[in-house]
TrEMBL record:
<keyword id="KW-0539">Nucleus</keyword>
<dbReference type="InterPro" id="IPR008493">
    <property type="entry name" value="Hikeshi-like_N"/>
</dbReference>
<keyword id="KW-0813">Transport</keyword>
<comment type="subunit">
    <text>Forms an asymmetric homodimer; required for binding and nuclear import of HSP70 proteins. Interacts with ATP-bound HSP70 proteins.</text>
</comment>
<dbReference type="Pfam" id="PF05603">
    <property type="entry name" value="Hikeshi-like_N"/>
</dbReference>
<keyword id="KW-0653">Protein transport</keyword>
<dbReference type="GO" id="GO:0061608">
    <property type="term" value="F:nuclear import signal receptor activity"/>
</dbReference>
<comment type="similarity">
    <text>Belongs to the OPI10 family.</text>
</comment>
<dbReference type="GO" id="GO:0005829">
    <property type="term" value="C:cytosol"/>
</dbReference>
<comment type="function">
    <text>Acts as a specific nuclear import carrier for HSP70 proteins following heat-shock stress: acts by mediating the nucleoporin-dependent translocation of ATP-bound HSP70 proteins into the nucleus. HSP70 proteins import is required to protect cells from heat shock damages. Does not translocate ADP-bound HSP70 proteins into the nucleus.</text>
</comment>
<feature type="domain" description="Hikeshi-like N-terminal">
    <location>
        <begin position="6"/>
        <end position="130"/>
    </location>
</feature>
<keyword id="KW-0963">Cytoplasm</keyword>
<dbReference type="InterPro" id="IPR048364">
    <property type="entry name" value="Hikeshi-like_C"/>
</dbReference>
<dbReference type="GO" id="GO:0030544">
    <property type="term" value="F:Hsp70 protein binding"/>
</dbReference>
<dbReference type="GO" id="GO:0006606">
    <property type="term" value="P:protein import into nucleus"/>
</dbReference>
<dbReference type="GO" id="GO:0005634">
    <property type="term" value="C:nucleus"/>
</dbReference>
<dbReference type="GO" id="GO:0034605">
    <property type="term" value="P:cellular response to heat"/>
</dbReference>
Amino acid sequence: MFGCLVAGRLVQAAPQQVAEDKFVFDLPDYENINHVVVFMLGTLPFPEGMGGSVYFCYPDQSGMAVWQLLGFVTNEKPSAIFKISGLKSGKGSQHPFGAMNLPQTPTVAQIGISVELLESLAQQTPVASAAVSSVDSFTEFTQKMLDNFYNFASSFAVTQAQMTPNPSEAFIPANVVLKWYENFQRRLTQNPLFWKT
């Protein structure tokens, strides 16, 4: 019913069924994984009104399982990409795998899928950092660079009363930098490749 994919590895299409409504995939060498894709194989849909919550489980320093909710898959949303690289130091959350004593190996993490009512899925809150950004890395870099430049330039702002005349220095009004910053962000939002034209 489910598949799991990690870049550079073979597709896993046979999860271990640990309960009637719970499945797990092992992720060996999980510390070198950035993203994981969980998807339905298309061979068997969820029963009407049901979906699957997707969890990431890794062993903490003492070897105890830490489970974190990543998101969900449903018949209407049969696949999802999750970023797990930043989760390895986070805190666990409430999960349906608690009563199960799944074996934990220090270098193996797990993806767990729990079949649940769609109403239950709608009330769950996934870990925020698991969502894959829809902004490409160039746009994200550009926005961070803009923020950094604006913050840096603003840190030198002085009022006219504080200015000391110095004929060898040119001063740029802070409102001009702010206007440029806002215009650049607007244009970047409208077309991330505007600078190529």
